[in-house]
């Protein structure tokens, strides 16, 4: 089981102050600032909320996600499509395997920001804006 928080450096409190990561024994916690108080919330609790949201978004837009990934990879074949579709359905495996540091950095550079309250409930997820293709051509 992965013990490193999936969204380290992407979680913020409602005042948009970054959450630090601290370990209590082997368990990772996001440290949410609440004035002068530092609240420790289990990272897995917050990460599960975020992963559930991501999976819901990807399933609702599976065709667009698959097409976008295929374009990024420069591949347009049945096997690649099947691999991507399978990955979308099994995105929750990231909880066990962890996320590569490069992917986390890329998400931050793209503007992903997760806002949580002092109890660790996800308040909102700011995602990069993507313009929709113009079909008027």
Task: Provide tags for this entry.
single chain; alpha+beta; 137 residues; three-stranded mixed β-sheet; elongated
Structural write-up:
The chain has helices at residues 43-60, 62-73, 78-89, 94-97, 101-110; strands spanning 11-12, 20-24, 27-34, 37-42, 113-116, 122-126. By secondary structure, it is α+β, with helices and mostly antiparallel strands. It has one domain (11-126). It has a three-stranded mixed β-sheet with strand order 1-5-6, covered by helices on one side. It has a three-stranded antiparallel β-sheet with strand order 2-3-4. Helix 2 (62-73) crosses helix 3 (78-89). It is elongated and about 55 Å long.
Summarize the structure.
The protein is α+β, with helices and mostly antiparallel strands and 137 residues long. It is built from five helices and six strands.
How much is the radius of gyration in Å? 17 Å
The helix/strand series, from N terminus to C terminus, equals EEEEHHHHHEE
Tally of alpha and pi helices: 5
Strand share of the residues?
Answer: 15-25%
In what order do the strands lie side by side in the largest sheet? 1-5-6
Choose one word for the global shape.
elongated
Topology, number of strands: 6
Q: Which residues form runs of ≥5 with pLDDT under 50?
A: none
Report the average pLDDT across residues: 87
Q: What secondary-structure arrangement, pairings included, does this model have?
A:
Blueprint: E1 11-12, E2 20-24, E3 27-34, E4 37-42, H1 43-60, H2 62-73, H3 78-89, H4 94-97, H5 101-110, E5 113-116, E6 122-126
Parallel strand pairs: 1-5
Antiparallel strand pairs: 2-3, 3-4, 5-6
């Amino acid at each position: 089981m992965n013990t490193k928080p999936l969204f380290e450096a992407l979680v913020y409190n409602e005042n948009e102050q970054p959450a630090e990561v601290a370990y209590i024994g082997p368990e990772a916690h996001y440290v949410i600032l609440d004035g002068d108080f530092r609240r420790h919330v289990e990272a897995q609790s917050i990460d599960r909320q975020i992963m559930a949201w991501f999976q819901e978004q990807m399933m609702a837009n599976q065709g667009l996600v698959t097409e976008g990934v295929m374009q990024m990879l420069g591949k347009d074949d049945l096997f690649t499509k099947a691999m991507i579709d399978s990955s979308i359905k099994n995105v929750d495996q990231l909880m066990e395997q962890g996320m590569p540091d490069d992917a986390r950095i890329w998400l931050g550079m793209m503007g992903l920001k997760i806002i949580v309250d002092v109890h660790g409930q996800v308040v909102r997820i700011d995602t990069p804006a993507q313009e929709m293709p113009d079909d008027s051509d």
